[in-house]
Amino acid sequence: MSYEIATCSYREWRPEMGVPIRTSRGAPRGWQGELPAWAAVYPTWPMRQITDRDEFTRRYLARLDGYGVEHAAADLAAIADETNADTLILCCFEVSLSERIWCHRSVLAAWLSDRLGIDVPELGAHR
User: How far is 27 from 54, CA to CA, in rounded Å?
Assistant: First the structure.
């Protein structure tokens, strides 16, 4: 892998971090510049209604496992090639992830880390 992967909120992302990748169904209003979308990892609409963290995690991991790490790795490689990126930043709307504030990008980062054997750090305020 000739690129790195990290996560961040749209609000906390800065250009020097790397190329932002949209992992959310919606894009931020007024976003300026490039924002490649990775639709395969968007949570489904029914998942967005789940408030229990464990239940959400179980369903989202099942979605990711169904898609497969091989497809995910190929998607990321293609995005890195298309954008000439050294670092891909997987973005969504949640700011400053912590034990109290969580979202799908933390689950996605853990899944990629586990399946690909790589570090996927959070670059927001709560690293």
Answer: 26
